[in-house]
Specification:
Blueprint: H1 3-23, E1 27-30, E2 40-46, E3 55-60, E4 73-74, E5 86-93, E6 102-108, E7 111-112, E8 114-119, E9 122-123, E10 128-129, E11 135-138, E12 149-156, H2 162-168, E13 174-175, E14 178-179, E15 183-189, E16 192-200, E17 205-213, E18 219-227, E19 237-241, E20 246-252, E21 267-275, E22 278-287, E23 292-295, E24 299-302, E25 305-306, E26 309-314, H3 327-339, E27 344-347, H4 354-363, E28 366-374, H5 380-394, E29 400-407, H6 416-422, E30 429-432, E31 435-436, E32 439-440, H7 453-456, E33 460-461, H8 476-488, E34 494-497, E35 505-507, E36 513-515, H9 534-542, E37 546-548, E38 560-565, E39 576-583, E40 594-599, E41 610-614, E42 626-632, E43 638-645, H10 649-656, E44 665-670, E45 673-678, E46 681-686, E47 692-697, E48 700-702, E49 705-711, E50 721-725, E51 728-732, E52 743-748, E53 754-760, E54 766-767, E55 770-775, E56 781-790, E57 803-810, E58 827-829, E59 834-839, E60 844-848, E61 854-857, E62 879-884, E63 905-906, E64 918-925
Parallel strand pairs: 26-27, 26-34, 27-28, 28-29, 29-30, 32-33
Antiparallel strand pairs: 1-15, 2-3, 2-5, 4-13, 5-12, 6-11, 6-15, 7-14, 8-9, 8-10, 8-12, 16-17, 17-20, 18-19, 18-21, 21-22, 23-24, 24-25, 31-32, 35-36, 37-38, 38-41, 39-40, 39-42, 42-43, 44-45, 45-46, 46-47, 47-48, 49-55, 50-51, 51-52, 52-53, 53-64, 54-63, 55-62, 56-57, 56-59, 58-61, 59-60, ...
Helix pairs in contact: 3-4, 8-9
C-alpha cells in the first residue's frame, strides 16, 4: 500500500473508531436553552392574567411571570388570590440521523407544576406533578426522522394534586409557573445503562450498582476509576451480566485523595456495558471518596473527623429570572458562600439545579438535599415517585451528606424508610424543625434555650435554620455568641443561617420594582443582586477557620499572636499570612499616609490545635496607626483581614487639636446665654443646662446644636459657672450628689477649638445605650469622612467584620433589604478617632481622645414585625456620640434573646461617687475647614 493510501486508511479507521466511541455514549440535544443566560424561544399561550389569550413566544427555560405573563404570587397568598394560569408551549424540532436505532428520551429538568407532554400530537406519558424534579419519557416510537416533530407541553402552575400544592406552593417564598429548567433529548443505545448509583468511601472502598436495560445475556459490566485528567487507577472491575438486572461492582483504590470542603478532590468512574469485546454503552460519573458517619449522641463525622456545619439556607433564585438559573449563577452563589467561610449549604426547600450540586462538588461544600415540603407534604404515592426522581438525579454527588424530608412539619413519615432503601450510601434523613432520628434541628431557638433540652438533651443539636435574617437583623447579629456556644458544646453539629439572599423579585407588572413582599423576603446576608450587607463580613470573620485570640498592641508587645486552627484537615502552614503597617492621613493633611508590608512565616499549627504566630515588627512600628494581617487559604481565597490599633485616639487628638494660640477670647452674657468668641468662631451656650445652642463663623451658621443630651441618663447639668483657665474659657456645671450628679464642662481655646467633657451615670442599672445627642438637619448632610472601623455600621451584637482605617461615606437613606445602596449611612459606627461631617454648607470635625467611642448618624427607617422582635431603639436627636449602643433583633428573636451581646448594658452607679462616673471627651472644629 502506498504511504498516502495507508495514511488515508489510518485516518478513516481513527474517524470510525471516534464515531463508534461517540455512538456508544449517551447523546444529548437541547430543545431549550441550557439556562437562564442562554434560552431558546418557544411558542407560548397563557390562559389568564397578563398577556393572556394569545399565542406569542417565551424564552425557555424561564418563569413566565418574569416574562410578563400571568400573575405574581407569594406562597402565603389566599387560595382565592392565587394565579392559577395554564401555559401552553409548542416547539418544532428535527431529530439527528445519529439518533436512529436508539432509545430516545425527552428530559425535563424542572417545570412548575403539572406538565402534560405530547410529541406529534400523542401523549408522551402520564402528566407529571411536582416542580423541582427531573422527569423523562421514552419517545422513540413517537418521533420521526424524516421531517419536523412538534413538542407540545401544557403546564399548570397550580397542581390538580392538592398535596403538591401543600408541599410546594403554600410556603414562605415566591411561587412561579413555567418550564424553568432545561429540556433536552437524550439518545441511548437500545442496550444501555439506565442508572448508576455509587458509594465511594474514604478508605478507597468503592461499590456501585449498574442498572441495565435490554442487556444481552453473557454481556459484561465494568467500571474503571480514573483521575479527572484520565489517568487510570488500578484495573477495571468486571461482572458478567445474565439478563436485565442490577449489577453490583466493587473495587478498591489505594490511598485515594479524600473529598471534603477543604480538599474537594474528585475522580471519574467510567461504566461500560460490552458484549464480546464490543462496547454497547459507556457512562461516566464524577465522584469523590468520602465517608459520612452519624454517631448517635455524639456528632457527624466525615472521613473520621467530627464536623461543625457552618451553613446557610439557599433558594434557587435570581430577581430577573425567578427560579430559572444558569451554571454561572451557581458558581457565583457557591463562591460567595465559600467567601463567607462557610462549609455547608441547605437546599431550601427543594432540590436544586444539577449544576449547583456540580459546583458544590468541585468547590467543596457540604449539602443538605431536601424533598420539598413546607408545613405540608406530598401524599405517599406522589412523594414516592418524586423521591425516586430526586434520588436518581442527585445521589452520586459527594457534596450531599444528609437528606431532608420536608420542612417545618412538611414531613411524610411514610417516606422515611424509602430514603434508606433507595440510597446506596444510606445517608441519614432529617426532619427540619424536629427532634428526629437523633438530630434536634429545631429552628430559631433562643440563645438561652439550652437551659432546657436543646443543648442539655441527648440528640445532636443542629438547627437547620437559625438567626433568621430580616432587614439588617439576624445573621451577623448574634452569630458570635451562638458560634462560641456551638463550638463549646460537644453535641452541637453547627447550624444553618436563614438565609443566603433577599428574595426580591423584579415585578414586570410594576415597572420593574424589586418586591420583597414587605418583611417576608428581605432575609438575606446578601441582597437580590448579591449586594453584601454588614452581616456578610461579620459572618466571614466569625466563621474564619483561622481564629485570633484577643491581643492588644501595647507596651511590651512582642509581635506574638495566639491562634487557633479551626480547620478539619488543613495545617495553617498551608495558608498564606501577610502583614501591613498603615499610617493614616488625617482630615487636615498633617499626617502623611504610609504603608509597610511585613513578611510573615505561616505557623505550623495542626487542625483544632492552638499555636503562636510571630510577626517581626520593625523598630518604628509605633509610628504607624494600624496593623493589618490578611490570611489566604491554600486555594488563594482570602479568609479575612484583621486589624489592630497601634495609635490610640488620644495620640491622634493630641496631634490634630491646636489648643494654644495668641488670639484672645471674648465672653459675654446675652439673656440666658453665654456667648464666646474665639478666632472668628462664635458659640452660644445655655446658662441653664449648658447646651450648645448656636455655632457661627465668618462664613455663616453651622446648624449643629441642642446638645449634649444624655441618653439614657438624667439631664441634670445645673448651676453653671464661667471662668478663665489661662487663656482658655471654661464653662462648667456644679456637682451635686442628689440633684446634679452628671456634670458638663466646655473649654474654648484661643484657636477656636472646643472641648466638651461629660461625666455621667447611666440612668438605670440596665440601659439600651449610653451617650450624648446633638441636633443637625438631616437634609443638609452630604457625607462623612472618618477614622475608625468601617465601612459598615455596627450593632451591639454585631461588632465584628469591619476594618480600621479612614472611610468616606456619602449620605443615603438605604433601608436594608428594601433598597441596596450599601454600606448604609445611618446608624452606629465604631471605634471613632475623628469624623468630618460634610454638609451642604460648611464642614465641621469632631474628635475624641477616648477609646471605644461610637458615633451615630440619624435614625434608620423604623420597622416592626408581628412579634415586635425586630424593633430597634435609637437615641433621640440626630447625631450622637456613644459609649454604649443598642443591639438588634430579627424576625423570630428579640435582641436580648440572641445572646449576651444582645443584652442591655449594665452599670452600677456607685452611689454617684464622682470618680466612678463614665467620662466622654470630644473636640470640635467649627472653623469650616
Amino acid at each position: 500500500m502506498k504511504p498516502v493510501c495507508r495514511y488515508i486508511f489510518l485516518i478513516a479507521l481513527l474517524a470510525l473508531a471516534g464515531l463508534q466511541s461517540f455512538a456508544q455514549q449517551t447523546q444529548k440535544m437541547y430543545l431549550s436553552g441550557t439556562g437562564s443566560d442562554k434560552t431558546v424561544n418557544w411558542q407560548f399561550h397563557c390562559s389568564t392574567g397578563r398577556n393572556s389569550g394569545k399565542w406569542t413566544t417565551i424564552p425557555v427555560p424561564s418563569n413566565w411571570e418574569l416574562q410578563g405573563f400571568g400573575k405574581y404570587n407569594y406562597g402565603w397568598a389566599k387560595d382565592t388570590a392565587r394565579g392559577k394560569e395554564v401555559g401552553q408551549y409548542k416547539y418544532k424540532f428535527k431529530v439527528p440521523a445519529s439518533f436512529k436505532g436508539k432509545t430516545v428520551q425527552i428530559v425535563f429538568e424542572g417545570a412548575m407544576t403539572d406538565t402534560e407532554v405530547k410529541i406529534n400530537g400523542k401523549p408522551a406519558g402520564p402528566i407529571h406533578q411536582g416542580s423541582y424534579y427531573a422527569f423523562k419519557y421514552d419517545i422513540t416510537s413517537l418521533i420521526k426522522f424524516d421531517g419536523t416533530n412538534l413538542l407540545e407541553a401544557t403546564v399548570a402552575k397550580h397542581s390538580a394534586n392538592q398535596s403538591v400544592n401543600e408541599a410546594e406552593r403554600k410556603g414562605d417564598f415566591w411561587i412561579f409557573g413555567g418550564i424553568f429548567r432545561p429540556v433536552y433529548l437524550q439518545a441511548l443505545p437500545v442496550q444501555h445503562v439506565s442508572r448508576v448509583a455509587l458509594d465511594a468511601q474514604a478508605n478507597g472502598s468503592f461499590k456501585a450498582d449498574m442498572y441495565l436495560k435490554n442487556a444481552p445475556a453473557n454481556s459484561t459490566a465494568s467500571v474503571q476509576i480514573t483521575t479527572l485528567s484520565g489517568q487510570t487507577l488500578g484495573s477495571p472491575v468486571n461482572a458478567t451480566v445474565t439478563a436485565d438486572s442490577v449489577v453490583h461492582l466493587q473495587a478498591n483504590v489505594a490511598n485515594p485523595k479524600q473529598w471534603s470542603p477543604e480538599t474537594p478532590d474528585l475522580y471519574n468512574a467510567v461504566f461500560t456495558l460490552t458484549q464480546n469485546g464490543k462496547v454497547l454503552h459507556t457512562v461516566t460519573k464524577r465522584f469523590g471518596f468520602r465517608t459520612v458517619e452519624v454517631k448517635q449522641r455524639d456528632g457527624v463525622y466525615v472521613n473520621g473527623l467530627k464536623v461543625k456545619f457552618k451553613g446557610v439556607n439557599r433558594h434557587s433564585f435570581w430577581p430577573t429570572t425567578g427560579r430559572a438559573l444558569s451554571k454561572a449563577r451557581s458558581v457565583e452563589d457557591a463562591n460567595l458562600i465559600k467567601d463567607l467561610n462557610m462549609n455547608a449549604v441547605r437546599m431550601s426547600h427543594y432540590p436544586p439545579d444539577d449544576h449547583f450540586l456540580d459546583v458544590c462538588d468541585s468547590l467543596g461544600l457540604f449539602v443538605l438535599d431536601e424533598l420539598a415540603g413546607w408545613h405540608g407534604h406530598y401524599d405517599t404515592p406522589t412523594g414516592t415517585k418524586l423521591l425516586k426522581e430526586m434520588m436518581e438525579h442527585d445521589e452520586n454527588h459527594p457534596s450531599i451528606v444528609l437528606w431532608v424530608n420536608g420542612n417545618e412539619g412538611g414531613h411524610n413519615r411514610e417516606l422515611d424508610p424509602l430514603f434508606r432503601k433507595l440510597d446506596i450510601q444510606k445517608r441519614t434523613v432529617l426532619h427540619a424543625w424536629e427532634d428526629f432520628g437523633g438530630f434536634d434541628t429545631q429552628h430559631y431557638r433562643d440563645y438561652n434555650y439550652g437551659i432546657g433540652t436543646y443543648d442539655n438533651g441527648h440528640s445532636i443539636v443542629m438547627p437547620t435554620e437559625f438567626l433568621h435574617g430580616m432587614y439588617d437583623g439576624g445573621h451577623g447579629a448574634g452569630i458570635d455568641d451562638y458560634w462560641k456556644m456551638m463550638l463549646a458544646n460537644p453535641l452541637s453539629a453547627g447550624g444553618f443561617l436563614w438565609d443566603f439572599a433577599d428574595q426580591g423579585v423584579v415585578r414586570t407588572d410594576l415597572n420593574g420594582k424589586i418586591d420583597t413582599e414587605k418583611d417576608k423576603g428581605p432575609d438575606g446576608i446578601v441582597g437580590p443582586y448579591h449586594e453584601k450587607e454588614g452581616s456578610f463580613f461579620t459572618v466571614k470573620e466569625v466563621w474564619s477557620p483561622v481564629f485570633f485570640e484577643r491581643r492588644e498592641i501595647a507596651s511590651g508587645f512582642d509581635g506574638v499572636f495566639h491562634l487557633e486552627n479551626r480547620y478539619n484537615v488543613t495545617n495553617l502552614n498551608q495558608c498564606t499570612f501577610t502583614g501591613k503597617l498603615v499610617r493614616i492621613k488625617d482630615t487636615y493633611g498633617k499626617a502623611k499616609p504610609a504603608e509597610l508590608d511585613i513578611a510573615i512565616t505561616s505557623p505550623n499549627i495542626k487542625p483544632w490545635e492552638k499555636g503562636d504566630l510571630k510577626v517581626n515588627m520593625p523598630s518604628d512600628y509605633k509610628s504607624y496607626d494600624f496593623l493589618y494581617i490578611t490570611v489566604t487559604d491554600n486555594h488563594k481565597r482570602e479568609l479575612f483581614t484583621w486589624s489592630w490599633p497601634i495609635t490610640k485616639p488620644e495620640r491622634v487628638a493630641r496631634k490634630i487639636v491646636v489648643k494654644d494660640g495668641k488670639q484672645s477670647i471674648d465672653v459675654t452674657t446675652v439673656d440666658s446665654l453665654y456667648q464666646v468668641s474665639a478666632n472668628g468662631i462664635k458659640l452660644w451656650f445655655s446658662k441653664a443646662n449648658g447646651m450648645l445652642k448656636k455655632v457661627e463663623n465668618a462664613k455663616g451658621v453651622i446648624p449643629f446644636n441642642n446638645g449634649p443630651v444624655l441618653q439614657e441618663g438624667a439631664n441634670n447639668f445645673k448651676n453653671f459657672t464661667q471662668k478663665l483657665d489661662g487663656k482658655n474659657v471654661v464653662i462648667e456645671s456644679t456637682f451635686d450628689r442628689k440633684a446634679a450628679y452628671n456634670t458638663l464642662q466646655w473649654t474654648v481655646y484661643p484657636t477656636g477649638w472646643v472641648k466638651m467633657q461629660v461625666r455621667y451615670f447611666p440612668g438605670d442599672y440596665f440601659t439600651n445605650f449610653v451617650g450624648v445627642n446633638f441636633s443637625f438637619p438631616e437634609k443638609e448632610m452630604k457625607a462623612v469622612e472618618y477614622m475608625g472601623s468601617g465601612p459598615y455600621r455596627v450593632w451591639k451584637n454585631r461588632m465584628k467584620g469591619n476594618k480600621l482605617g479612614v472611610w468616606k461615606k456619602d449620605y443615603n437613606d438605604t433601608e436594608t433589604g428594601q433598597s441596596w445602596n450599601y454600606p448604609e449611612f445611618k446608624g452606629y459606627h465604631a471605634n471613632m478617632y475623628w469624623c468630618k461631617f460634610i454638609t451642604t454648607g460648611q464642614p465641621f470635625t469632631v474628635l475624641t481622645d477616648d477609646e471605644d467611642t461610637f458615633f451615630r448618624l440619624f435614625t434608620p427607617t423604623p420597622h416592626d414585625d408581628q412579634w415586635h422582635n425586630y424593633v430597634v431603639k435609637f437615641p433621640s436627636g440626630d447625631i450622637s456620640f456613644m459609649q454604649g449602643i443598642g443591639a438588634i433583633g430579627n424576625k423570630t428573636l428579640g435582641a436580648e434573646d440572641t445572646g449576651p451581646m444582645g443584652m442591655k448594658h449594665i452599670f452600677y452607679d456607685y452611689e454617684k461617687e464622682p470618680m466612678r462616673a463614665k467620662e466622654m471627651n470630644l473636640y470640635f472644629d467649627f472653623s469650616g475647614r
